[in-house]
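W.,

You were right to be curious about this one. When I first looked at the sequence I had no strong expectations either way, so I just let the prediction run and decided to look at it fresh. Below is the sequence, 511 residues in total, followed by the output.
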Amino acid sequence: MQQFALGDTVLQLSKPAYQNLTTGVVPEMGSRATAPLLLFLGVLFIFVKFSEKRATLPGPSFCLGIGPLISYGRFLWMGIGCACNYYNEKYGEVVRVWIHGEETLILCRSSAVNHVMKKGHYVSRFGSKRALQCIGMNENGIIFNNNPSIWKQTRPYFAKALTGPGLRRTLAVSVESTSNHLEKLLGGHNTTSACEDILLFLRAITLDISNKLFLRVPLHEGEIVSKIQKYFDTWQTLLLKPDIFFKFKWIYQKYERAARDLQDAVEELLLKKQQELQQTEKLQDVTDFATDLIFAQTHGKLTADNVRQSVLEILIAGPDTMSVSIFFMLLLITQHPDVEKKIVEEIQAVTGEREVQNSDLQQLKIVESFIYESMRYQPVVDFTMRKALKDDVIDGYPVKKGTNIILNLGRMHKVEFFLKPNEFNLENFAQNVPHRYFQPFGCGPRSCVGKYIAMVMMKGILVTMLKRYRVHSHNGSTLENIKNNNDLSCHPNESHSILRMIFTPRNQAEV
């Protein structure tokens, strides 16, 4: 009994100590668990507040950095054009996203678009520096040259070549080249003939025109056209790639090789040009774009890399962009015989039996409206990329220096002003369209320097073709059933099938 009593006494004596031990340890353990939780909640609160502060612009949420990753991934996956349309459709005419971790605005409201185009502090473009170095556009040429001072130094050479005497020669050269290529295609016979690859055909014509206007040296059309296509694919694939992509040589070396192939080809053409200049007695008889650039290099005004890239860019503009534009126009003509009838009647009324001349261009109103409506309804280049060089305010939204800007012109042309924006209809250009609502070539200091010569070339090629031949789709292709890629530009996916067209002489078609 004494033992049990002793045990109870010991137990009673031990209770206070046990309780003190428990009450001392539990709070300490609780404080250790609470501190990280409070820290996490604090960080989360800061991120939420940070996200709310940045959400003054419509667009996806920052959401702990997940938003920038998703938006950048969408651009890489869908392509620039498709991603822009996706975000504008979802969030509205002014959208904030992220590309490569950099804040980027997508604009398709005419007031915002025109504000950016007309301001001098938006003359720079954006894109991966490694990609631009790979394709030779980093601080060279004018298309994606993001160094304003070098761009301003180079652009006048393009402006001189694409206006004045060069512009006046363009129509005759376009008519001659188109006629010669049609004759080669049809073998000189007045019979029906299927064109195996209409895009290849148009690329050969536009390259020939560009060569005769700006370089004037013998070249192999098929070989250069093939290299231009591979160069464009490289440009499109690499432009927004992250820097880590270029850490692995085995991944991007095929693209680097494709870019180098065209650069080497242009280097050889320039060497031929230099040899011709050395043998020429009267330089005034051979002056052209390439000649002016070579002399500028000789006098230390331009670098050799800039000269090569500038010639490369003026040669690729036709096969890269204009050929696809004319292809889309020919498809629209096959789908709208009533429009074709109006165009052909106007051509015959203006030109009669002779070839189209410069004095005729102002009278070809229906042809011009057709070209504009085609470029509005099915654009090839439907956006342009810029970078803010200083702080600004666009339509009430603050924009910080360094912000990327994408002007979604294709969508702007279908959400404002036009009577039938979602239809192909010449009534959309029955009256003059205010410049602010239709910007196929842009405006302001960085507008397309070749916009006037492009219109003349398109008119010359179309009038020469349609005056002689009626065009049919070989396999029922329409704008609706062909597969297009909309990345750096909107163009047919040629990996699925060869796009063919049939040329029927007009006298046979009428019979």
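Here's what jumped out at me. Residues 2-54 form the longest helix (53 residues). And, maybe more interesting for your project: The first strand starts at residue 94 and ends at 99.

Coffee later to discuss?

I.
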